[in-house]
C-alpha cells in the first residue's frame, strides 16, 4: 500500500508463492518457490535487495509477507534503462536467489479508493455526541422520510437548463481534449478556402487591359541618334538645345512627374568618338567618297549565297560618329553631316549580332531617332501656273467661276509659300517596334514644346505624356470575359463547398462514440429527453460551425473579392454560410445510427457531401452556358428546383449567383450605368436562403422522428400482446402480487414491462 501513499513512485513486488501480482505505479515482481503459501521464504532476501538497489537505489521494500516481496519503485528521476537492466538481471539470476517468478502491474483503482477512504476514516474524530444531538433534533422536528429522493429536485424549465448545462460541459471537455476535432472543424476548412483564393489571385484577371504609357524606354537600353541638317541656322538653336540639354529626350527626367520605375542620371556625359583600326581610318582618307556612295558597300543575300544578314566590310556606314550617354540613360549618336540612311542600313548587321542573346526574343537596340532642319521636297510651280490650269479646266468643262474664285486665285501664290515650311523635324523609327513611331513622335513633340517656352520657364517642368488606351470590348469579348470570370467564381464556390463538407461530417464522430459507449443510452435512462439531447448537441455544433464560418468570412475579406465582400454581397455571404450550418448539421445526425466506426463515418459523409455539392452546382452551371438550347434550359430550371432539397446545392449555387450578380454590376459600370441588382432577390440568393431555413427545421424534426422509431415497423404494430404460454410458478405469483398493489413501499417498480424485437426499415 505504500504505492498509494506516494503516487509518484512505482512498486515491484516479488512473491515466493504460487501467485504473482504486479503494478507500474506500483511495480510488482513475484516469485514462486512452493506449493503452499505457508511455506517460508527460502530465497536470499539480502541478495535480492542488493540486486534491486544496485539498479534502482531509490527502491524500497514495503512488504515481506510469506512468500511474496513487494518493492516500491520511483516513476521518475531514475537512471535511464534502469528498469530494463533490473528485469534482465532478475531473469538471469532467478534461480540463484531462490525465486520462482516476478512481474509488474499498476495499482488497481479500487485499491486507491479503499486506501483513501481508510485514511479519511482515520482523520474523522469521534462524532458520537454529534450524532446523538442530531437524532434528538430529528425527533423534535418533522419526521424524516427516506423514499429514495433527495432533499431538493429540479423540475420543469430548471431541470432542462441543468441538463443542457451538463451536456454542454461534457461536450466542452471532449472537444478540448481532442485535437482532431479542432483540425477537422477549424483548420481544414479554412485551409481549403485560403488555397482556393490564393489560386484566384495567381490567375490573371479578365477585363479591360490597362493603359500603356508610350516612350522609347519600353524597349530597354538602346542606341538612338540625332542629326541637325542646318547646323548654322539660328532657328535650329532652341530646338537643338531642347533635344541635347536637360531634361533630354521625352519626359523621362521631368522634375515633378518623371516616368515611374525609370531612373535618370545626374547629367549627360561628354561626347566621345570610338576608336577604329588604322587601316579603316586610312581607307576614308585615301579613297574619294561621295554623298551617294559615302562608305563601302555590303553584300546582300543572293540565290547562290544565302545569308540572314548583309555581309558588310569594315568601315561600312562610315567612321563611328560621336556619341554620349544621355541623362535619360540611352546612348545618343550625333549623325550631323552624315548620310543617315547609309549609316542605319550598313551598321544594322553589326548592331543586331550583338543582341542575339536569346532565341525567343531579339532586342533591336535601335528603335528610332530624330533629325531636324530638313526641307520637304516641293514641286517647282508657281501660283499663277495653278490659276491658269484651273481656268483651262473650267473652260473645258464649261464652268465659269464667280467672285470667290477670282479672290482665291489672287492669293494662291501666298498660300503656296505659306505651305512651304523651311524647318522640319523628321522622326525615324524601326517598324519592328510596334510603339516606336508614336514614342519617338512624342519625343519630337516634347522638344517642340520646350523650344517654344519663354526664357524664364524651366524646360524640366514641362512635358507631354502619350498614353495608349485599349479599345472598348466588343459584345462578344465582353460576353466571353463574363463567362471566364464567373467560371473562376464557380471554382471558388465549389472549393467553399469542399471545405464546408468536412465540418458537419466531423460532428457525427462524437455522436457515434456516444452511442457505442452507451453514454447516449445512459443520458436517456437518466431522464434526458430526446429533444433536450439533440437540441444541446445542435447548439454546441452550431456554435463551433459559426467559428469556422467566421474564419472563412475573414479570409474572404482579407482577399477583397468583390463578388463576395462588396457592401451588398457580404451580408448575403454571411447569411448563406450560417443557414448552411443550420440545415446541414441536423441532416447529418441520422447517419450516426448506421455507423460503428467513427473514422469510416467521417470519410463516407464527407464524400457524400462533396458528391452532392460539387455535382449539383457544376451541372446547373454548365447547363446555364447553353443559352441557345431551349430544352436544356428548361431541364436546368427543373433541376434547380429539385436540388433545393440539398443544403450543399443551396450554398454553392447561392455563392455562384452572387458572383453572377457582381459580374452584371461590373458590365453596367463599364457602360457608365449604376445598376445594382438586389442579391437578396428571389432569383438570386433569396430562394436558396428560404430553402436552407426550411431544411434546418425539417431535418431536425426528421431526426427526432427517427429516434422515436417513427418509420419502423413497430409503429404499425397493434398495442395488444398475446397470452403468456409458459411461465414459472414463482414468476406468476410475483406478477400477481405486483398487479394487486403489493409493491407500494418499493422505490423502483417495473410493471407490465415487455420487450418487443422487431426489424427497422432503416
TrEMBL record:
It comes from Laticauda laticaudata (Blue-ringed sea krait). It is found in: Membrane. This is ABC-2 type transporter transmembrane domain-containing protein. PANTHER family: ABC TRANSPORTER DOMAIN-CONTAINING PROTEIN-RELATED, ATP-BINDING CASSETTE TRANSPORTER SUBFAMILY A ABCA. GO terms for cellular component: membrane. Residues 421-705 form the ABC-2 type transporter transmembrane domain. Keywords: Membrane, Transmembrane, Transmembrane helix. It is a multi-pass membrane protein. Residues 137-148 have a biased composition (Basic and acidic residues). GO terms for molecular function: ABC-type transporter activity; lipid transporter activity. Pfam families: ABC2_membrane_3.
